[in-house]
């Protein structure tokens, strides 16, 4: 239920629901029903279960439809047995007693019922898949991008019906970190006020296992104009300091410094080494980071440079696409699309050329911007040479807040072209990408990088990208996943303070 969608009347489209402070429906209007899609597996193959137990308190009538159906003979008041299918599964409240309304609805896969009744709140297979990892970054769980949250009272609570809108509660993220014995990486909302930051840090200090480190980052990709946090940083920075081109980065640096101070000079003042503050930068835009690192406009107000406020790391990415994503827009090199499309006619669909391009850059040298490209590993080495030199100047380390392949036309000219979609998915599934990942990870380590966070654990491939190391939770292996586990197991932790 925590992953279910917002309430919607799928029958009569009667809008506006009356709910309590946690989102439970307290009454229904005439002819209104309250439905929520609670489960939509990406495919039949990806379904780890076909039956759920629905437990609830209160009085009313719940129905199930679409791919979900109630097993009436095995159900009882307060406990429904429900078969679920490969399409969208709908739970629908059709009547409710306002004096004792339906609440605390829990939807537990039957295969995990024993674990749930023993007190577990996380999917055991999910936990098992992540036990080898050092750190988990909660950017998506926190709904960081475009987050409207600003005050502590607005945050998600464990008691809320669903966490899909406001994000997963901090208590739950801390509990997962403790369960996994992994360091948590939190992204503080760009609108968060100082009380929010203090309360956030206090809860982490109180509830996180004492031996774990906490990574703290201001929002996510504040340089990325596709996100509201970048637009807000630009507007707010210019309002404060005037029409300065990099005001958004200077504001980003200032807020990172203030958040870091909020943790290290606040609840963690007696153990500042447990907090690692990360200043996120745009890896491919050399020089843009200067405003955030040195923040001269904030310094002119009487403050010390941003990097001196306890910031530990610059946050980079290791993303690569090797030109395989096609043209960015209609005004890009006109030869880019037809060159790649010609590959699709080859017997292997162009995969040999794709991997040659990733390995050495030989296949797209005629395309504008790729004339000197020498492959993924060399490009990573070049980036690391720049960033390690820059970071050393300011006494900072390097971590990767995200990384891996970026072979997707997501947001670009060919995004909806099925030939390109199929090509990109095939690259991600090809066993040869394991070796490409090996090269990238080794170049990251050799270049002075420390912690590297991969984006992302599980995700179904589509026109939006093939981001998942695994395509679904129950998938046992993939070339990308194998490369990550191999490097994680075979390379001893190499940076100071890494267990």
Could you describe the 3D structure shown?
The protein is built from 14 helices and 15 strands. The strands form four sheets. It has a six-stranded parallel beta sheet. The chain has a four-stranded antiparallel beta sheet with strand order 6-7-4-9, with no helix packed on it. The protein has a three-stranded antiparallel beta sheet with strand order 3-8-5, with no helix packed on it. It is globular, with a radius of gyration of 25 Å. The protein has helices at 113-117, 124-129, 170-180, 194-207, 228-241, 247-264, 289-294, 296-299, 336-343, 351-360, 376-393, 418-429, 433-446, 479-490; strands at 18-19, 25-27, 34-39, 51-57, 60-66, 69-70, 79-83, 89-96, 103-109, 135-137, 183-188, 214-218, 275-280, 311-317, 397-402. With 499 residues, the protein is of the alpha/beta class. The two termini are 36 Å apart.
Binned, the helix content reads 25-40%
**Termini Cα gap:** 36 Å
Class from helix and strand fractions: alpha/beta
Rounded to the nearest angstrom, the radius of gyration is 25 Å
- From N to C, what is the helix and strand string? EEEEEEEEEHHEHEHEHHEHHEHHHEHHH
Question: Which stretches of 5+ consecutive residues score pLDDT under 50?
Answer: none
Helix count?
14
Average per-residue pLDDT, rounded, comes to 97
- By DSSP, the count of extended strands is 15
Major sheet description? 6 strands, parallel
Strand order of the largest sheet: 10-11-12-13-14-15
The shape is: globular
Question: Which percent range describes the beta-strand content?
Answer: 15-25%
């Amino acid at each position: 239920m925590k992953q279910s969608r917002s309430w919607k009347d799928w029958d009569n489209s009667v809008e506006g629901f009356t709910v309590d402070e946690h989102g439970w429906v307290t009454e229904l209007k005439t002819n209104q029903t309250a439905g929520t899609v609670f489960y939509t597996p990406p495919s039949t193959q990806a379904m780890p279960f076909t039956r759920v137990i629905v437990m609830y308190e209160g009085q009313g009538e719940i129905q199930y439809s679409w791919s979900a159906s109630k097993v009436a003979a095995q159900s009882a008041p307060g406990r429904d047995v429900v078969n679920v299918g490969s399409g969208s599964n709908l739970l629908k409240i059709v009547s409710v007693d306002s004096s004792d309304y339906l609440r605390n609805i829990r939807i537990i896969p039957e295969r995990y019922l024993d674990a749930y009744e023993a007190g577990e709140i996380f999917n055991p297979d999910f936990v098992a898949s992540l036990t080898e990892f050092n750190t988990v970054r909660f950017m998506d769980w926190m709904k960081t991008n475009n987050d409207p949250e600003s005050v502590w009272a607005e945050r998600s609570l464990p008691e809320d019906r669903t966490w899909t809108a406001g994000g997963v509660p901090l208590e739950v993220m801390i509990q997962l970190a403790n369960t996994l014995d992994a360091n948590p990486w939190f992204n503080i909302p760009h609108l968060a006020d100082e009380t929010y930051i203090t309360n956030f840090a206090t809860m982490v200090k109180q509830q996180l296992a004492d031996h774990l480190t906490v990574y703290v980052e201001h929002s996510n990709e504040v340089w990325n104009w596709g996100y509201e946090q970048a637009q807000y940083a630009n507007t707010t920075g210019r309002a404060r300091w005037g029409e300065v081109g990099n005001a958004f980065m200077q504001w980003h640096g200032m807020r990172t410094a203030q958040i870091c101070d909020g943790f290290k000079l606040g609840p963690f003042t007696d153990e500042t080494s447990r907090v690692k503050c990360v200043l996120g930068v745009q890896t491919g835009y050399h020089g843009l980071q200067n405003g955030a690192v040195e923040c001269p406009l904030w310094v002119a107000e009487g403050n010390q440079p941003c990097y001196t406020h306890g910031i530990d790391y610059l946050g980079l990415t290791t993303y690569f696409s090797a030109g395989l994503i096609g043209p960015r827009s209609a005004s890009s090199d006109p030869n880019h699309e037809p060159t790649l499309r010609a590959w699709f006619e080859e017997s292997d669909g162009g995969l040999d050329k794709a991997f040659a391009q990733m390995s050495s850059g030989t296949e797209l040298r005629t395309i504008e911007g790729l004339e000197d490209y020498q492959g993924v590993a060399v490009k990573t080495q070049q980036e690391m040479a720049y960033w390690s030199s820059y970071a050393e100047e300011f006494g900072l380390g390097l971590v990767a807040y995200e990384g891996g392949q970026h072979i997707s036309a997501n947001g670009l000219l060919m995004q909806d072209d099925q030939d390109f979609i199929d090509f990109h998915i095939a690259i991600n599934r090809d066993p040869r990408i394991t070796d490409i990942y090996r090269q990238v990870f080794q170049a990251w380590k050799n270049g002075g990088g420390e912690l590297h966070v991969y984006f992302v654990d599980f995700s179904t491939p589509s026109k939006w990208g093939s981001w998942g190391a695994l395509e679904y939770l129950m998938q046992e292996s993939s070339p990308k996943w194998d490369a990550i586990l191999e490097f994680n197991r075979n390379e001893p932790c190499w940076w100071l303070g890494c267990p």
